[in-house]
Write a structure and sequence with these properties.
Structural class: mainly alpha
Order of helices and strands: HHHHHH
Number of helices: 6
Strand content: under 5%
Oligomer: single chain
Number of strands: 0
């Protein structure tokens, strides 16, 4: 392979280049002073958390705080199953609750097979570590989907 490193480009006169831009924009906005002569990249725009990601994150925080349960929506000591945590986090059966539940069940099926028809049946048939793994993956998916 022949790679040519020399070019036939004419060198640019930097002063002429600056004068041309001054003619195009005679009153430019003042440039912000450089910090220690280093140009820092602009900060990325703030990313807002979507309602599904927030619901999933709040529900997992609820499970971490109050405990995870099997075979019951709410344990007498306050622990909840996955669907109970979703309900507590959403506050109502709204769109975020439904979408978060669908995403959680879809992730459960990805990790544990397509046979799961509901979150409670999946929740009750797996260990706490397996359930947590699904929650964390669902939160990552919601984050990447920006929902």
């Amino acid at each position: 392979m022949n790679t040519r490193t020399e070019t036939d480009f004419t060198p640019i006169d930097q002063d002429l280049y600056a004068k041309a831009f001054q003619l195009l924009d005679p009153n430019p906005e003042p440039a912000a002073p450089a910090q220690d002569s280093v140009n820092l990249p602009a900060a990325p725009p703030a990313r807002l958390t979507g309602p599904v990601e927030k619901t999933l994150t709040d529900a997992l925080t609820f499970l971490d705080t109050h405990g995870w349960a099997r075979r019951t929506l709410v344990h007498h000591e306050g622990a909840r199953c996955s669907i109970g945590a979703l309900r507590a986090a959403a506050g109502a059966r709204n769109a975020a609750y439904c979408d978060a539940g669908n995403l959680l069940l879809d992730e459960a099926r990805r990790q544990h097979g397509k046979r799961w028809e509901s979150i409670p049946s999946w929740n009750d048939s797996h260990t706490g570590a397996q359930v947590r793994s699904v929650w964390e993956a669902a939160i990552r998916r919601a984050h990447h989907m920006n929902i």
